[in-house]
Amino acid sequence: MQWTTKTCIALVDMQAFFPSCEQIDFPELMNKPVAVTNGDAGTCIISSSYEARAYGIKTGMRMQDALILCPELIKRPSRPKRYAEISGNIISALRDITPDIEVFSIDECWMDLYPILDLYKGVENIATMIRKAVYDSSGGINCSIGISEGKLTAKFVAGVNKGVTTIVPANKIKEYMAPYPLEKICGIGDKVLEYLNDRGYRTIGDLQKAPHNVLSTRYGVVGKRIQSVCNGHDPVELVTKEKPPKSIGHSKQLPFIRDKSVIESILIHLIYRLTRRMRLLNIKSKSVGIYLASKQILIKKIYYFNKANNCNYIFIKAVKEHMNLYKGQPLLKIGIKCFEVEYDGNEQFDLFSQPYDSNHLRCDIAMDEINKRFGDGTIRPALEYIVDQLDLVPVIAFNFNATSKAKNSL
Predict the structure, then answer these.
(1) CATH fold of the domain at 247-388
(2) Rounded Cα–Cα distance for residues 173 and 368 (Å)
(3) By the number of CB atoms within 10 A of the CB, which of 76, 182, 223, 229 ranks highest?
(4) What pLDDT is stored for residue 240 in this prediction?
């Protein structure tokens, strides 16, 4: 195929990624219905194989309900570190084809193919190379590949044709998209869809005929982009150089825990992980948000500090205060997050030359230096060993990037 436009973007989406990883590592699971849950004790399905999806198994479904639909369904507890390892292998292999990659999530990325079209003699050859790179580097995972003029148009064509390569050039993408329902567009969620449906727009073709400002007047720049994508053009370029994070956080899924001392220990464990990452990235924050979520309520509050810092001691004081709000409800999820982080220069921390605000921070940095030299986890607070025994599963953020320092912490 002769490519005539100056943009050529591929979206690579690994198929049923978590269950596929399980089937690769445990060949006896091949061609069988597999459901990955949030840990051994977890009952919520976070992904399922295509064999399971054929029975109507969906993400978010409870295991007991899924077994009614498919009694032979095989449960596998999630293994985030293994998934991260395989994801990193795949991204590294794809970078051998082109370095111009934007990682969207643990199992998706965009690739800018335009600079290498001539090098590899056309887009079809590149697609074949991509598929082989994913398969070989992962040990056997298949992928969907969508290729078009922009990021979200490429994501669209990959999404409507799972497991294969779909190439739709710029001069055909608008017509190609027109018959599909609006919810197929990335960015059109329930609220936007309701807004459009209420105005009589059901398909992408309907929105193509709409006034140019039908979404921008309500949703601003985001709405303008969505409408542009529906008309066959995504104006947003790939971000191949990683931007510094604007926020940073950690969370844990819980098996209905209500022991106050255990919950506090988990929160402090998350604080240590968070501040460790912040020091690695040379960032500080003037606040931390803490939330405790049960089925019925969300206990959420932001705590502010006198000045920006990344000291464990200061953050733990916020945890102690937040636990006073907890009244014994069985919790499903807890988390912490820093917003509007500040960058503390480009230099790396040095135990002997940096000025510190307190002896607490000196202790934190000393622990960082020891773990850096002798291996992660060489020295850590005793409570982390208590948390290890709970066998809690890390939550993989939607934008997880196994090759990024800022986004790869489990």
Answers:
(1) Dna Ligase; domain 1 (3.30.1490)
(2) 51
(3) 229
(4) 84
